[in-house]
Amino acid sequence: MDTLMNFYNLLQARFFGPFKSGGEVVIVVHGGAGNTPDERIPAKLKGVKKAALEGYDVLRCGGTVVDAVEAAVKYLENDEHFNAGKGSVLNANGEVEMDASIMSGNCIEPGTVTVVKGIKNPVSLARRVLDKTPHIKLAGEGAHVFAKNEGIKIVDPGALVTGYAQELLELHKKGELSDCGKSDEPDTVGAVAVDCRGHVAAAASTGGCTGKLAGRCSSSTTASGVYADDNAGAVACTGHGESIIKFCLAHNIIQEMENGKTAEAATKQSLVKMHAKLKTRGGATAISTRGDVGIFFSTPKMVWAYVKGGRLHYGVKPGQHEIICFEKAK
Prior knowledge:
Elements (H helix, E strand, L loop, with lengths): L1 H15 L9 E9 L6 H20 L4 H13 L20 E7 L4 E8 L5 H11 L4 E3 H10 L13 H11 L15 E6 L5 E7 L19 E4 L3 E7 L1 H7 L1 H10 L4 H16 L3 E7 L4 E5 L3 E8 L2 E5 L6 E4 H4 L1
Parallel strand pairs: 3-4
Antiparallel strand pairs: 1-5, 1-11, 2-3, 2-6, 5-6, 7-8, 8-9, 9-10, 11-12, 12-13
Helix pairs in contact: 2-3, 3-4, 8-9
Protein backbone atom coordinates (compact mmCIF):
# COMPACT_ATOMS: atom_id res chain seq x y z
CA MET A 1 0.00 0.00 0.00
CA ASP A 2 2.81 2.43 0.88
CA THR A 3 4.53 1.69 -2.43
CA LEU A 4 1.32 2.31 -4.35
CA MET A 5 0.70 5.57 -2.48
CA ASN A 6 4.26 6.73 -3.12
CA PHE A 7 3.82 6.01 -6.84
CA TYR A 8 0.53 7.90 -6.90
CA ASN A 9 2.07 10.87 -5.09
CA LEU A 10 4.96 10.92 -7.55
CA LEU A 11 2.65 10.93 -10.59
CA GLN A 12 0.51 13.61 -8.99
CA ALA A 13 3.48 15.86 -8.23
CA ARG A 14 5.22 15.37 -11.59
CA PHE A 15 2.23 15.79 -13.91
CA PHE A 16 -0.48 17.65 -12.00
CA GLY A 17 1.39 19.45 -9.21
CA PRO A 18 1.06 18.78 -5.48
CA PHE A 19 -2.11 17.02 -4.36
CA LYS A 20 -4.48 19.44 -2.63
CA SER A 21 -6.66 18.36 0.26
CA GLY A 22 -6.79 21.55 2.28
CA GLY A 23 -3.49 20.90 4.04
CA GLU A 24 -0.02 22.36 3.54
CA VAL A 25 3.35 20.75 2.95
CA VAL A 26 5.87 21.93 5.56
CA ILE A 27 9.26 20.75 6.82
CA VAL A 28 11.18 22.13 9.81
CA VAL A 29 14.85 21.42 10.60
CA HIS A 30 17.04 22.29 13.59
CA GLY A 31 20.78 21.98 14.08
CA GLY A 32 20.92 21.67 17.87
CA ALA A 33 20.33 24.00 20.81
CA GLY A 34 23.27 25.49 22.71
CA ASN A 35 25.62 28.45 22.48
CA THR A 36 27.51 27.89 19.25
CA PRO A 37 30.57 30.14 18.80
CA ASP A 38 29.73 32.98 16.40
CA GLU A 39 32.36 31.88 13.90
CA ARG A 40 30.58 28.54 13.43
CA ILE A 41 27.11 30.01 12.89
CA PRO A 42 27.31 30.78 9.11
CA ALA A 43 28.18 27.19 8.21
CA LYS A 44 25.52 25.77 10.50
CA LEU A 45 22.87 28.15 9.19
CA LYS A 46 23.75 27.25 5.62
CA GLY A 47 23.46 23.58 6.55
CA VAL A 48 19.97 23.75 8.07
CA LYS A 49 18.70 25.82 5.14
CA LYS A 50 20.03 23.28 2.66
CA ALA A 51 18.64 20.39 4.72
CA ALA A 52 15.16 21.99 4.84
CA LEU A 53 15.23 22.54 1.07
CA GLU A 54 16.41 18.96 0.57
CA GLY A 55 13.49 17.58 2.56
CA TYR A 56 11.01 19.90 0.89
CA ASP A 57 12.14 18.77 -2.57
CA VAL A 58 11.43 15.19 -1.53
CA LEU A 59 7.87 16.16 -0.58
CA ARG A 60 7.36 18.16 -3.77
CA CYS A 61 8.42 15.18 -5.87
CA GLY A 62 5.92 12.85 -4.22
CA GLY A 63 8.00 11.39 -1.39
CA THR A 64 6.48 10.62 1.98
CA VAL A 65 7.03 12.64 5.14
CA VAL A 66 9.27 9.84 6.40
CA ASP A 67 11.35 10.13 3.22
CA ALA A 68 11.55 13.90 3.73
CA VAL A 69 12.77 13.91 7.33
CA GLU A 70 15.26 11.15 6.57
CA ALA A 71 16.67 13.18 3.68
CA ALA A 72 16.94 16.35 5.79
CA VAL A 73 18.69 14.66 8.71
CA LYS A 74 20.92 12.65 6.40
CA TYR A 75 22.10 15.93 4.86
CA LEU A 76 23.12 17.20 8.31
CA GLU A 77 24.86 13.91 9.14
CA ASN A 78 27.06 14.48 6.08
CA ASP A 79 27.97 18.01 7.20
CA GLU A 80 30.78 17.98 9.76
CA HIS A 81 29.56 21.25 11.30
CA PHE A 82 26.82 19.32 13.14
CA ASN A 83 26.94 16.88 16.02
CA ALA A 84 25.62 13.96 13.99
CA GLY A 85 27.26 11.50 11.62
CA LYS A 86 30.54 13.00 10.39
CA GLY A 87 30.59 15.83 12.97
CA SER A 88 29.72 13.74 16.02
CA VAL A 89 31.42 14.53 19.32
CA LEU A 90 33.58 11.94 21.12
CA ASN A 91 32.92 9.81 24.17
CA ALA A 92 35.36 9.47 27.07
CA ASN A 93 37.37 6.91 25.09
CA GLY A 94 37.75 9.23 22.11
CA GLU A 95 35.26 7.28 20.01
CA VAL A 96 32.20 8.28 17.99
CA GLU A 97 29.07 6.51 19.24
CA MET A 98 25.86 7.66 17.59
CA ASP A 99 22.11 7.48 18.10
CA ALA A 100 19.32 8.14 15.61
CA SER A 101 15.60 7.71 15.27
CA ILE A 102 12.82 8.18 12.77
CA MET A 103 9.10 8.01 13.46
CA SER A 104 6.00 7.92 11.30
CA GLY A 105 2.84 9.48 12.71
CA ASN A 106 0.83 6.79 10.94
CA CYS A 107 0.19 4.25 13.73
CA ILE A 108 2.96 6.00 15.73
CA GLU A 109 5.69 3.73 14.38
CA PRO A 110 9.33 4.43 15.37
CA GLY A 111 12.65 2.94 14.34
CA THR A 112 15.78 3.73 16.37
CA VAL A 113 19.44 2.77 16.70
CA THR A 114 21.75 3.48 19.61
CA VAL A 115 25.47 3.25 20.41
CA VAL A 116 26.42 2.59 16.79
CA LYS A 117 29.93 3.04 15.38
CA GLY A 118 31.16 3.45 11.83
CA ILE A 119 27.72 4.08 10.36
CA LYS A 120 27.93 7.01 7.94
CA ASN A 121 24.20 7.79 8.17
CA PRO A 122 22.59 6.43 11.35
CA VAL A 123 19.19 7.92 10.43
CA SER A 124 19.03 5.65 7.39
CA LEU A 125 19.83 2.65 9.57
CA ALA A 126 17.00 3.71 11.91
CA ARG A 127 14.75 3.87 8.84
CA ARG A 128 15.62 0.27 8.02
CA VAL A 129 14.73 -0.75 11.57
CA LEU A 130 11.36 0.94 11.02
CA ASP A 131 10.73 -0.62 7.62
CA LYS A 132 12.38 -4.04 7.85
CA THR A 133 12.00 -5.27 11.44
CA PRO A 134 9.26 -5.79 14.03
CA HIS A 135 11.47 -3.98 16.56
CA ILE A 136 11.69 -0.39 17.73
CA LYS A 137 15.38 -0.23 18.68
CA LEU A 138 18.63 -1.97 17.82
CA ALA A 139 21.86 -1.31 19.69
CA GLY A 140 25.61 -1.68 19.37
CA GLU A 141 26.95 -4.79 17.66
CA GLY A 142 23.49 -6.09 16.79
CA ALA A 143 22.72 -2.87 14.96
CA HIS A 144 26.09 -3.11 13.18
CA VAL A 145 25.36 -6.64 11.93
CA PHE A 146 21.91 -5.53 10.78
CA ALA A 147 23.50 -2.61 8.91
CA LYS A 148 25.86 -4.98 7.07
CA ASN A 149 22.99 -7.25 6.10
CA GLU A 150 20.99 -4.29 4.81
CA GLY A 151 23.80 -2.82 2.75
CA ILE A 152 24.05 0.33 4.87
CA LYS A 153 27.31 2.20 4.26
CA ILE A 154 29.88 1.42 6.97
CA VAL A 155 33.14 3.34 7.30
CA ASP A 156 36.17 3.13 9.52
CA PRO A 157 35.09 4.67 12.86
CA GLY A 158 38.09 6.99 12.70
CA ALA A 159 36.73 8.51 9.49
CA LEU A 160 33.96 10.15 11.52
CA VAL A 161 36.35 11.84 13.97
CA THR A 162 36.91 15.53 13.26
CA GLY A 163 39.57 17.86 14.60
CA TYR A 164 36.92 20.01 16.23
CA ALA A 165 35.49 17.01 18.12
CA GLN A 166 39.00 16.20 19.37
CA GLU A 167 39.45 19.80 20.55
CA LEU A 168 36.19 19.59 22.51
CA LEU A 169 37.25 16.35 24.17
CA GLU A 170 40.53 17.91 25.27
CA LEU A 171 38.62 20.85 26.76
CA HIS A 172 36.36 18.37 28.55
CA LYS A 173 39.33 16.51 30.02
CA LYS A 174 40.70 19.81 31.33
CA GLY A 175 37.38 20.61 32.97
CA GLU A 176 36.75 23.52 30.63
CA LEU A 177 33.41 22.14 29.42
CA SER A 178 30.45 21.71 31.73
CA ASP A 179 28.85 18.36 32.51
CA CYS A 180 27.80 16.01 29.73
CA GLY A 181 24.82 17.39 27.88
CA LYS A 182 25.04 20.79 29.58
CA SER A 183 27.90 22.31 27.59
CA ASP A 184 27.54 25.24 25.23
CA GLU A 185 28.06 23.21 22.08
CA PRO A 186 24.79 22.09 20.38
CA ASP A 187 23.92 18.42 20.17
CA THR A 188 21.05 16.60 18.45
CA VAL A 189 19.86 17.57 14.98
CA GLY A 190 16.29 16.93 13.95
CA ALA A 191 13.49 17.38 11.43
CA VAL A 192 9.70 17.27 11.43
CA ALA A 193 7.36 17.38 8.44
CA VAL A 194 3.70 17.30 7.43
CA ASP A 195 2.21 16.56 4.01
CA CYS A 196 -0.97 17.87 2.43
CA ARG A 197 -2.98 14.99 3.90
CA GLY A 198 -1.92 15.73 7.46
CA HIS A 199 0.52 12.84 7.79
CA VAL A 200 3.51 13.72 9.98
CA ALA A 201 6.97 12.33 10.72
CA ALA A 202 9.99 13.20 12.85
CA ALA A 203 13.66 12.23 12.84
CA ALA A 204 16.79 12.97 14.86
CA SER A 205 20.47 12.06 14.93
CA THR A 206 23.26 12.78 17.42
CA GLY A 207 26.74 11.96 18.59
CA GLY A 208 25.54 12.65 22.14
CA CYS A 209 27.68 14.80 24.43
CA THR A 210 31.43 15.25 24.66
CA GLY A 211 33.11 12.97 27.20
CA LYS A 212 30.04 10.77 27.78
CA LEU A 213 30.62 7.28 29.15
CA ALA A 214 30.86 4.61 26.47
CA GLY A 215 27.46 3.04 25.91
CA ARG A 216 25.42 6.07 26.93
CA CYS A 217 22.07 6.31 25.10
CA SER A 218 20.50 9.68 24.27
CA SER A 219 16.95 10.99 24.45
CA SER A 220 16.87 10.86 20.64
CA THR A 221 16.13 7.13 20.79
CA THR A 222 13.08 7.60 23.01
CA ALA A 223 9.56 9.04 22.79
CA SER A 224 10.86 11.79 25.05
CA GLY A 225 13.11 13.15 22.31
CA VAL A 226 11.25 12.33 19.10
CA TYR A 227 7.54 11.76 18.59
CA ALA A 228 5.03 11.78 15.74
CA ASP A 229 1.29 11.13 15.77
CA ASP A 230 -1.10 11.84 12.91
CA ASN A 231 -3.73 12.79 15.49
CA ALA A 232 -1.67 15.77 16.67
CA GLY A 233 1.72 16.47 15.09
CA ALA A 234 5.44 15.75 15.28
CA VAL A 235 8.25 16.91 17.56
CA ALA A 236 12.07 16.74 17.53
CA CYS A 237 13.93 17.84 20.69
CA THR A 238 17.49 18.88 21.50
CA GLY A 239 19.32 19.73 24.72
CA HIS A 240 20.20 17.95 27.94
CA GLY A 241 19.17 14.40 27.08
CA GLU A 242 18.77 13.11 30.62
CA SER A 243 16.41 15.98 31.46
CA ILE A 244 14.46 15.50 28.23
CA ILE A 245 13.93 11.86 29.20
CA LYS A 246 12.91 12.70 32.76
CA PHE A 247 10.40 15.28 31.56
CA CYS A 248 9.19 13.24 28.54
CA LEU A 249 9.53 16.45 26.56
CA ALA A 250 8.46 15.42 23.05
CA HIS A 251 5.42 13.51 24.25
CA ASN A 252 4.58 16.35 26.61
CA ILE A 253 4.49 18.76 23.65
CA ILE A 254 2.30 16.37 21.67
CA GLN A 255 -0.13 16.10 24.58
CA GLU A 256 -0.39 19.89 24.79
CA MET A 257 -1.16 19.97 21.08
CA GLU A 258 -3.80 17.28 21.52
CA ASN A 259 -5.35 19.49 24.20
CA GLY A 260 -5.81 22.28 21.67
CA LYS A 261 -2.61 24.34 21.93
CA THR A 262 -0.81 25.48 18.81
CA ALA A 263 2.56 23.94 18.03
CA GLU A 264 4.20 27.24 19.06
CA ALA A 265 2.40 27.48 22.42
CA ALA A 266 2.87 23.80 23.24
CA THR A 267 6.60 23.89 22.49
CA LYS A 268 7.26 27.03 24.52
CA GLN A 269 5.14 25.96 27.50
CA SER A 270 6.76 22.52 27.75
CA LEU A 271 10.33 23.83 27.58
CA VAL A 272 9.58 26.53 30.16
CA LYS A 273 8.13 23.86 32.47
CA MET A 274 11.14 21.59 31.98
CA HIS A 275 13.50 24.41 32.91
CA ALA A 276 11.42 25.31 35.99
CA LYS A 277 11.47 21.70 37.21
CA LEU A 278 14.95 20.54 36.25
CA LYS A 279 16.94 23.76 35.75
CA THR A 280 18.21 22.57 32.37
CA ARG A 281 17.81 24.06 28.94
CA GLY A 282 17.02 22.80 25.48
CA GLY A 283 15.01 23.35 22.37
CA ALA A 284 12.41 21.73 20.15
CA THR A 285 10.76 22.04 16.77
CA ALA A 286 7.17 20.95 16.35
CA ILE A 287 4.59 20.83 13.61
CA SER A 288 0.86 20.16 13.81
CA THR A 289 -1.16 18.12 11.34
CA ARG A 290 -2.61 21.47 10.19
CA GLY A 291 0.85 22.72 9.29
CA ASP A 292 1.42 25.29 12.05
CA VAL A 293 5.01 25.44 13.25
CA GLY A 294 6.44 25.62 16.76
CA ILE A 295 10.05 26.59 17.47
CA PHE A 296 11.34 27.42 20.91
CA PHE A 297 14.66 27.15 22.76
CA SER A 298 15.82 28.25 26.19
CA THR A 299 19.49 28.23 25.17
CA PRO A 300 21.26 31.30 23.72
CA LYS A 301 21.13 29.90 20.19
CA MET A 302 19.57 27.23 18.01
CA VAL A 303 19.98 27.21 14.24
CA TRP A 304 16.71 26.33 12.50
CA ALA A 305 14.98 26.61 9.14
CA TYR A 306 11.67 25.64 7.63
CA VAL A 307 9.93 25.78 4.26
CA LYS A 308 6.28 26.74 4.09
CA GLY A 309 4.11 28.48 1.52
CA GLY A 310 6.92 28.88 -0.99
CA ARG A 311 9.20 30.62 1.50
CA LEU A 312 12.23 29.65 3.54
CA HIS A 313 12.16 30.79 7.17
CA TYR A 314 15.25 30.69 9.38
CA GLY A 315 16.84 32.00 12.56
CA VAL A 316 19.49 31.51 15.23
CA LYS A 317 18.84 33.71 18.27
CA PRO A 318 15.61 34.12 20.29
CA GLY A 319 13.20 36.37 18.43
CA GLN A 320 15.09 36.18 15.15
CA HIS A 321 12.91 35.15 12.20
CA GLU A 322 14.09 35.83 8.65
CA ILE A 323 12.10 34.97 5.52
CA ILE A 324 13.22 34.67 1.91
CA CYS A 325 11.56 33.42 -1.27
CA PHE A 326 11.93 29.68 -1.80
CA GLU A 327 13.33 30.10 -5.32
CA LYS A 328 15.93 32.63 -4.14
CA ALA A 329 16.92 30.27 -1.33
CA LYS A 330 17.76 27.58 -3.86
